[in-house]
Amino acid sequence: MTLEHSPSRHLTAAPPLTRGRLLGYALGSVGTGIFSAVPGLLLLFYLTDVLGVSAAVAGAVLVAPKAWDVLFNPVVGAASDREAVRTGRRTRLLSLGSLALPVAFAAMFAVPGPIPGVVWAGGAFLLAASAFACFQVPYVALPAEMADGTAERTRIMSWRIICLTLGILVAGGLAPEIVGLGGGGRAGYAVMGVAVGAVMAAALLAATLSTRWVASHPGPRQLGLVAAFRTARGNRPFFALLAAFVTQSLGVAVMLAGAPYVAVYRLGDYGLTSLMFVCMVGPSALAVPLWTRAARRFGMVPCYLVAVAGFAAAALALIPVIDSAGVAGTLLLTGLIGVCYAALQLLPLSLLPETVHADAARTGHAQSGAFTGLWTAGETAGMAVGPGLFALVLAASAFASGPFDAPAVQPGSALTGLLLGFTALPAALMLISLPLVIAYHRLARAVSPKEIHEPA
């Protein structure tokens, strides 16, 4: 059975994708990019170097809410599919996430005096992660329902990744600066939470309102959560792609968590956190169209492999460069990492809808929400475990936590540990993901259209 004649296909052709509709959908990624980046970049540092929480405890605070979210994401996916069956839309969950996430995000960085900071921040992070799932899961499911063909879905992803890059730039570039303008310490972080949360709210609500035209067609019979995943076990390409993406997300999250520590303790200036982040993410806006054209010419998977290997090589090259070439060399290599990072966002997300549609052709059941719930659960796990893993590196290397007004002096072991955690550990995770990408390619060629994996 071909994809074009699958029972999961739309009964009518999808409406044309105008630039307005593409932008309306993509704006949501400004908000999701902010939430994906800021906690990973600043929350661990906020706990250890502003609130004075030990690295081990701070790591547990970061991982626990996301561990819950890994379980919660598939539940949201099934709920999204049920909503699509009842209403033909996924708008209600999108609206809930759009309204709740910015408030919980601001609360994470607004710890009141009488309540222990670690308890407040952890609880607010749990609420924020749950709200994020309510938006992200149905949001990721929409491209499979917005367009019928691979080329159009890749076009959707290109717009989305550009807006995602913009959101990440807002998070990583402006958030640390706002902390400084707010006076640093608790007060500075509280100001940042409100300001960045307002930008997030505007982006998420704009996407929710702009995608009400998308008609969801889950199919004549919708599977329950348990039955959906029992059926999904046969979709081997999906799970290979998911494993690769999660491993890469873990590597990126480790590097994000380590950036402020490298800026402060290896380069001597917390303000470089923003500059490092901009140099890493900024090139993505230019690189996405280049990767899109390269994928059309050489194939998505070959370009994907090149990007993963390039990320690993640049991360390893940072080890001697941070000390020998200082700020200039570090920023140059982080820019190269940013070029590769663009592909790590664009290409797997472009391949994801194809695995969903291929599974619908195989089983006769459409379960986009279930698959994207599992996908976002995996991504959430990687982004959550990353800071926790970096926190373990800090704890193992005897990193000394201290409050903002009494910073601790670090031993040599901690300085070495945070450097290797920022460079060698992400590189190793990228290299581990390479065989998983190759496995995906081998499995997917047996069930997916040739043009997905081969040059046009």
UniProtKB/TrEMBL annotation:
Can you tell me where the transmembrane regions are? Answer: 22-47, 53-72, 93-111, 117-140, 161-181, 187-207, 238-264, 270-291, 303-322, 328-352, 373-399, 419-440
Tell me which domain of life the UniProt entry assigns to the organism this sequence originates from: Bacteria
Q: Which Pfam families match?
A: MFS_2 (PF13347)
Keywords recorded for this protein, A-Z: Membrane, Transmembrane, Transmembrane helix
Q: Which InterPro entries match?
A: MFS_2, MFS_trans_sf
Q: Identify the SUPFAM superfamilies for this entry.
A: MFS general substrate transporter
Q: Which PANTHER family match?
A: MAJOR FACILITATOR SUPERFAMILY (MFS) PROFILE DOMAIN-CONTAINING PROTEIN, MAJOR FACILITATOR SUPERFAMILY DOMAIN-CONTAINING PROTEIN
> What is the official name of this protein in its record?
MFS transporter
Organism from which the protein derives: Streptosporangium minutum
